[in-house]
Amino acid sequence: MAKILQIETATAVCSVALSVDGKTVSVKEESGQNLHASKLTLFIDEVLKSAGVNYNELDAIAVSKGPGSYTGLRIGVSTAKGLCYALDKPLIAIETLKMMATGFQSENPGYIGLICSMIDARRMEVYTSVFDNNLNVLLPTEAKIIDETSFADLLATEQITFLGDGAAKCAAVLTHQNALFNTANFNAAKYMSALAETAFQQKNFEDVAYFEPFYLKDFVVTQSKKQQVQP
């Protein structure tokens, strides 16, 4: 039975879980700004202690690879890679948007429509991907500016549930009767469990030395108004 430590830091949620044989056995998470740097390693310790598992008993480390917050992803991936190096364990990378869709599907097993995972980028832009109810990708991951015509072709014939922290701001724009919105948190490490177990069994591991998060867009440094004022 594989024991896999799972780390999710793509959004404001700092989430850690432990799975055994594809089943979640311990979870610790908290939502808030700038939590990852101060909380992540503490949460990892708490999750393992709660399950009575020590670091050397782990079989792999799984991490949410993005897209999402540049800073959050960097912290999560660097922590996961550090553990892999220290423990000599394989690294598993989980697509963040697919993890979210998997979470929704697991909580809504009778749902037969499409699933659109959304992560807030900025203004009316989101990182998004659309899946059918078997988690096959219908629209691949992209950075998309949402307007009233977005997803029009799919909404004309299919019910779509939009979820994630990018979905709420789109509700006022996507008003088609087939557009549904779910506000639950699916950016949670516990929703990696089945995906991580499958990757482990298939030996779908990353090269720890060269693996980088899937940022999708380049990090943009902005200046505050105070910094822009010249003396």
Automatic annotation (TrEMBL):
Gene Ontology terms: biological process: tRNA threonylcarbamoyladenosine modification
Annotated signal peptide: none
Superkingdom field: Bacteria
Domain Gcp-like: 33-213
Listed transmembrane segments: none
Gene3D superfamilies in UniProt: 3.30.420.40
A single GO cellular-component term on record: cytosol
Protein's name in the database: tRNA threonylcarbamoyladenosine biosynthesis protein TsaB
Organism: Pedobacter soli
Source species taxonomy: Bacteria, Pseudomonadati, Bacteroidota, Sphingobacteriia, Sphingobacteriales
